[in-house]
Fold this protein.
Amino acid sequence: MSIQLAIYFTIVGFAIGSFLNVCIDRLPSDKSLISPPSHCDACQRRLGILDMIPVFSYLVLRGRCRYCGARIPVRVFIVELACGILFFLAFWRYGLTAQFGVTAFWCCIFLVIIFIDWENQLILNKITYPAVVIALIILAIHTYVPGTNLLPLQSTLLNGVISGAALFVFFLLFVLIRPGAMGMGDAKLVALIGLVSGFPLVVFSMLIGVVLGGIVAIILLATKMKGRKDVIPYGTFLAIGPIMALIFAPEILRWYLGFF
């Protein structure tokens, strides 16, 4: 049964990844997520069912539109595949529990943030503000409702708020001192990461994001793909941190407690 459920949730992840692609395409330009139906951006032809099977349609069509042959962005395939893999890992880690649902939800939110920032250098308030409210609600239920266990670690509302506020203030100072290096969107994002992760998990969330961002920035500058004055979407890398930290929270916590 566990194997069957793992396969089921992986397929569900693929399907949700397809919807996340719609969000990534449309949210930055304030377009409706419902209308118009999915279509080819090049020929405007409405896509059929066989064109929208997550992961497999991209492979069968070899990354091109069935009707006009225009290239389908590889990001479509990456998001669908990544979402399925993350759902599998979350289920493998937490089983059919509330922790699995919460972890899968945050994986979806951060995936959208990752790719919107990468493509548009934007971290949208319409994502971070509602996500902060949801994070506070989850923390409050987890903390104050007896018998609930919604989070991978036993974080509390106070823990999450302090972690989020501390990160927000630190990054806000950085934004004010070095305008242009980072934006207010990054400060709001790290506040969300602090709420979602809580201490000590937030330390590893940020460490993963900062290290990845630094490595990629060095590579982009060294290969001259980016100049020193070009914008590097740090939010993309910061948002990877909480995904990894949430899924591997038990191992991270055991490693952390091993020092004491």
